[in-house]
Amino acid sequence: MTDAMQVKEALQLRHDEISKWLGDNAPYVVADQKHLDENTPERAYWHYGYKAALSDVLALAPSPAALDPVTVEAIERQYFYTGEPGDHEAIKAAFRALIGHPAPTGDGK
Fold first, then answer.
1. Phi and psi of 88, rounded to 5°?
2. Can you say how many angstroms the Cα of residue 22 is from the centroid of all Cα atoms in its chain?
3. Model pLDDT for residues 53-98, shown as the tens digit of each residue
């Protein structure tokens, strides 16, 4: 199993666990959307939880040395390409910056 597959599997498992917990313990949150109200504890906790999720994803990111350019391009094709030229360019650039791989130059270098 590749690093990318392991990361996706770990993220999917955590997503499913949280979805079940929310369904069992707080099904009203989908309708209430109190995290959208300014200056509320719900909004602060939402941002804290989102930051924690981003930290978890960053911790799961494979080291740059573990990904060769062919693997990086395969991940981009699978997750970022929607069929239109230029789609998700900013996300792809951020992904490449995160893993330490420069964008292809198009001149074979």
1. 60, 30
2. 20
3. 878 777 777 666 566 777 777 776 666 655 555 556 666 676 777 6
The helix/strand/coil state of 2 is coil
Q: What is the DSSP string of 29-75?
A: HHHH-GGGSTT-HHHHHHHHHHHHHHHHHHHHSPPGGG--HHHHHHH
Neighbour count for residue 67 (Cβ, 10 Å):
20
- For the question of whether the overall pTM of this predicted structure is more than 0.85, the answer is no
Radius of gyration, alpha carbons of the chain: 18
> CA-CA distance, 2 to 7, in Å (whole number)?
9
DSSP 4: H
| Structure-token pair, residue 29 | 């949150």
Identify whether the C-beta of residue 43 lies closer than 8 Å to the C-beta of residue 35. yes
Residue-by-residue DSSP string for 80-109: H--SSTTTTHHHHHHHHHHHT-PPP-SS--
